[in-house]
Amino acid sequence: xxxxxxxxxxxxxxxxxxxxxxxxxxxxxxxxxxxxxxxxxxxxxxxxxxxxxxxxxxxxxxxxxxxxxxxxxxxxxxxxxxxxxxxxxxxxxxxxxxxxxxxxxxxxxxxxxxxxxxxxxxxxxxxxxxxxxxxxxxxxxxxxxxxxxxxxxxxxxxxxxxxxxxxxxxxxxxxxxxxxxxxxxxxxxxxxxxxxxxxxxxxxxxxxxxxxxxxxxxxxxxxxxxxxxxxxxxxxxxxxxxxxxxxxxxxxxxxxxxxxxxxxxxxxxxxxxxxxxxxxxxxxxxxxxxxxxxxxxxxxxxxxxxxxxxxxxxxxxxxxxxxxxxxxxxxxxxxxxxxxxxxxxxxxxxxxxxxxxxxxxxxxxxxxxxxxxxxxxxxxxxxxxxxxxxxxxxxxxxxxxxxxxxxxxxxxxxxxxxxxxxxxxxxxxx
Amino acid sequence: xxxxxxxxxxxxxxxxxxxxxxxxxxxxxxxxxxxxxxxxxxxxxxxxxxxxxxxxxxxxxxxxxxxxxxxxxxxxxxxxxxxxxxxxxxxxxxxxxxxxxxxxxxxxxxxxxxxxxxxxxxxxxxxxxxxxxxxxxxxxxxxxxxxxxxxxxxxxxxxxxxxxxxxxxxxxxxxxxxxxxxxxxxxxxxxxxxxxxxxxxxxxxxxxxxxxxxxxxxxxxxxxxxxxxxxxxxxxxxxxxxxxxxxxxxxxxxxxxxxxxxxxxxxxxxxxxxxxxxxxxxxxxxxxxxxxxxxxxxxxxxxxxxxxxxxxxxxxxxxxxxxxxxxxxxxxxxxxxxxxxxxxxxxxxxxxxxxxxxx
Lengths: 430, 359
Known about the structure:
By secondary structure, chain A is an all-alpha fold. Helices cover about 55% and strands about 0% of the residues of chain A.
């Protein structure tokens, strides 16, 4: 059988392609290094094992110890670490950002490895609290390796990475939750504990939503800094778009700004953001409005009206759900009403978002739309229950008729058999 | 009016001569006679299936985009549509149940023996067809559970050696379960299977009529020893009226099930959604499904699934030919068949319960 191999395809070309492939592959492979021969046997912090280094994204891309530390890893013994070979030794903490930036700020260089990777990390770092303090000589602040690790550095997409969404809060907490380490900076150290109680943390860890907010989502990563009072709303607005739009048009925006209050945080807190409930509009322990407003004032009246509306729609949706549940468990087909019920729930969600406009008439519109749907679905559920009862009455009647017919048949059989005899002797069949 | 009608028929067809065989037909009367009703009840339920199936056809639309909605429409908008659909679904399950009971009663009462081998074979083929009806009908509402159960079911068919892949593609109308599968299954369900069933059913009934009802071996021996004890019952009206009572009871049970536990519709199938947990076939396939699940992936050098399917295939063929083993083996053959029957019944019940209990 002819194949392209024995059918005139130049064998020399195949050979050439093979050689090219091997050469290109070799260029990407890790060059022989003598560094690990010694450093694998040393004690920490000088210890770097082959197992550790082979996990490093830089090593996987063909970079060697010399790429950061200089020297000549092809030479044996201390010649590899000689000044003549360009050995830089241990990189000082205040030099680390610049060292990493040599490659990571070079767009043309980084494009060869990962064209989608940003190259403004160093520039951003310089605007961060960490970067600014480092310039001032504070070497306790975080530099690249504190968050990303060193020698076994993994990309953020790797769930084992210190900076993967699931781990980054813990990475930040290594310094920020250490009261001793943070002494002198004048900031609290309970952020991580608070975050762990938040709805954002629950979304990330329980629901597995990796897009849920964690430290860098609000503070930035390389340019990490507190959002500042004026920009808090913009931070939250990255996800909570509609709430932010409503808040922007509300009277609260100007009021909060003039009182130097940090927008969303005033009612929802920052690190321990809990799942908002309608009770926030109430007057109980969870209530937030009455922290600023006086009982009986116009705002208190608006609060009470909005709470009453939300409670009414919530109750109506739950009541309709109850009826539909009973109908469904009775075997009635109510899937269409269930779909409509989702719209009523959407109206309730929308009303809860509209609360951020602090305008009762806008909230009222959403509430009325939801109430209309909930009333319809409840009526459909009740109709299904009435239909179920009608069917059962019909069944009772039918079974009664069947019973009467059965009795009639039984009596008829007895009658004809008493007249003519049921059985008689006969020859057996085959 | 009836007298006029009778006269009109008599003048043309000689009604008395036409109904003579019916009047002469008798049925053996003994303590186990009530087992004879099972075949009649299965026939009655088949009749219900035909009637309700025709009614469903008035509204059902066999396409992936409309099937679910059309069944939903039948259940919610069509007058008594819920009743027709629920009775169709319940009667299907009851029919297969009574067919299984009928098969085992025939086996344990020795009614398959010479000269009724062909009656047994035609009955077994009818049972296979009934299961085919169940398998094809299950997909027609195009709901999630049916979609994925059909996917699993047809995938198992694909394991059959040599013809498996071709058979799977034929059943699915392609490599995967799609709208083409639904259209195909609809065709099987309303045209191919009913056609074959009617032919086989007529054959089965003709054979029953020709050979008459079998007398169980123990009763037969007693009657042979003492011929005066042998009793016969007139088929019409005595046996027929009793059968009619059984049908009425079946109708009552069907009505009660349909009204109290209407057949669920579930959610519309989404081919792109992940398979939900707890995918199971209909109960009458459960013993095979559970067996295939429990067979190790490799048994010696052979693929476990293939081995299981081959084993069921061979068992099915042997079951079909059961009367001939009885005949060839004499008294020992009869004991062998009885033993096989007890084993099969125990196995089916145990594996079905296990299948529903296992997570």
